[in-house]
Design the sequence.
């Protein structure tokens, strides 16, 4: 929670009380009328000494503040790339960013029961453990085995080299950040500052705590601007290269790899056959038999409507609410790779077989699941383009009943009414999204979803976006399994999505070659000793954080 203006932190409260106690003691001494006889003094000499003491104290305080805020780190150059100096503070940011990213990825994978192949031990500092990853590292001068510190030094150096070189190239070609780009950066900083305040930190103190001394708003903003400009340059060049493809080249790319672009509409009811004990073979066989029996019952239905009803009939009590929605099993405009990742490669192969017909159905048994499949529309090339919208999501409460859902609808309607009572601009809608949307993936960007394609979003949301009558500025309410969406339509691109994908793929290939050329021509002057010293400081702060975390736990 952010600290209110009229509230004091524990430290501030202590200082206030201490000041009050001193004042009270001084006042009490004065009341006693204590008289102390002092020897005569040389007033001029004492005044000089006092001035010297004051100056020294001021210098000590100034030096202390300079080191505390990391001014030396911001002035100390550790490397130069194409003539641009990189400070110790900047290198610290990129080193700690590489480390934090690896730690976060490990944590993310573990949440889903997956193991990372990085091998980083987060209970030790990078310099205290041998590197066992797949990235090839330069042999150490001392002949010792590479450590994770060597890896993060390489990551930081490579990232700085690439970003600085691309930013310089972008400037040469007149590609710069505009007001919208800067506004996005300001929004990112504002979000981080809000997080900092919730933990009783200033923005600079928060950044120092996360990245290290010297990394304040100025260094952080510079890194954000670099990253934004690199992205803008890559996007611009990707679009430029992709737009140069002829219609014949697009067609040839499609013909060469139809599996990547064709889609299908299919219904899939999945029955998990996983059991709590992998050693109990009889339980596993029983689970598979039960699942296959239900799947057979579903595909025995004569048509799609029968399939939908059979899904409802075979649903367990705790699945009733999920499968009450007729669209619960429908995957529309799904690609082969997407279907494979959501089910299995066997299911995807069956659905995208060239001899499939609408209405085909089957049961496929996999290692941990049984699939009841009904093919609504066999593979086809979707000629729809893309749409760009904003939305504000008001989630249904968990286990919401009819009354609760009605309350959610009323809340969404109130937001839409508020929008309609104002100037009804996209900017106004974006502001409402930031304040009200419960969609964590888009709220901070004003509810923006760009270039939506068929098969990407939940069906009711998608149907609203792809309505042929939809025009810029249209608004409305849409209900999905998540809750109620307050919608704002921005624009449509009628170029088929598959063609956009082909052009983007081509542009990406070209931009990768360009980036290789740009970075290959870089001249870099690295002060190895300073870089090593900076990395050691980073590792010291990492070890301190590890020790503190271990102590607190």
Sequence:
């Amino acid at each position: 929670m952010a600290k209110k203006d009229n509230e004091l932190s524990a430290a501030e409260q202590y200082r206030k009380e201490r000041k009050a106690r001193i004042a009270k003691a001084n006042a009490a001494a004065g009341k006693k009328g204590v008289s102390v006889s002092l020897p005569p003094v040389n007033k001029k000499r004492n005044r000089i000494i006092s001035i010297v003491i004051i100056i020294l104290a001021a210098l000590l305080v100034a030096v202390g503040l300079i080191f505390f805020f990391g001014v030396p780190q911001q002035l100390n150059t550790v490397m130069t790339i194409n003539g641009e100096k990189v400070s110790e503070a900047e290198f610290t940011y990129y080193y700690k960013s590489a480390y934090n990213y690896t730690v976060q990825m490990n944590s993310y994978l573990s949440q889903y029961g997956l193991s990372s192949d990085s091998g980083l031990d987060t209970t030790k500092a990078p310099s205290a453990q041998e590197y066992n990853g797949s990235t090839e590292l330069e042999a150490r001068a001392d002949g010792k085995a590479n450590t994770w510190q060597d890896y993060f030094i390489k990551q930081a150096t490579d990232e700085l080299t690439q970003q600085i070189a691309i930013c310089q190239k972008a400037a040469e070609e007149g590609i710069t950040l505009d007001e919208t780009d800067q506004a996005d950066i300001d929004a990112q900083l504002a979000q981080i500052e809000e997080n900092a305040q919730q933990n009783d930190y200033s923005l600079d103190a928060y950044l120092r705590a996360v990245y290290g001394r010297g990394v304040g708003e100025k260094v952080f903003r510079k890194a954000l601007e670099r990253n934004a400009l690199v992205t803008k340059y890559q996007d611009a060049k990707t679009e430029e290269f992709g737009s140069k493809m002829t219609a014949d080249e697009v067609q040839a790319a499609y013909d060469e790899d139809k599996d990547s672009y064709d889609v299908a509409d299919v219904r899939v009811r999945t029955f998990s056959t996983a059991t709590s004990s992998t050693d109990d073979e009889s339980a596993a066989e029983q689970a598979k038999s039960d699942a296959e029996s239900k799947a057979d019952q579903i595909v025995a239905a004569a048509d799609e409507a029968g399939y939908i009803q059979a899904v409802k009939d075979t649903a367990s009590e705790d699945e009733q609410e999920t499968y009450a929605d007729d669209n619960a099993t429908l995957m529309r405009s799904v690609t082969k790779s997407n279907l494979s990742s959501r089910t299995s490669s066997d299911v995807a192969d069956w659905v995208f077989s060239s001899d499939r017909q609408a209405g085909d159905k089957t049961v496929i048994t996999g290692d941990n699941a049984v699939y009841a499949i009904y093919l609504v529309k066999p593979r086809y090339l979707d000629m729809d383009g893309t749409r760009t919208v904003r939305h504000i999501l008001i989630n249904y409460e968990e286990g919401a009943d009819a009354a609760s859902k009605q309350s959610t609808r009323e809340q969404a309607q109130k937001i839409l009414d508020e929008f309609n009572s104002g100037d009804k601009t996209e900017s106004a809608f974006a502001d409402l999204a930031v304040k009200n949307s419960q969609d964590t993936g888009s709220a901070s960007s004003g509810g923006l979803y760009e270039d939506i394609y068929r098969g990407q979003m939940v069906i009711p949301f998608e149907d609203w976006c792809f309505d042929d009558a939809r025009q810029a500025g249209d608004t409305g309410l849409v209900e999905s399994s998540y809750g109620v969406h307050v919608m704002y339509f921005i624009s449509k691109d009628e170029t088929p999505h598959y063609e956009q994908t082909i052009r983007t793929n081509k542009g990406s290939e070209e931009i990768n070659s360009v980036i290789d050329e740009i970075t290959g021509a870089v001249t870099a002057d690295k002060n190895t000793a300073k870089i090593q010293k900076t990395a050691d400081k980073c590792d010291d702060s990492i070890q301190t954080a590890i020790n503190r975390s271990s102590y607190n736990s």
Notes: The longest strand covers residues 369-380. Residues 38 and 46 are 14 Å apart (CA to CA). Confidence is low (pLDDT under 50) at residues 1-46, 54-69.
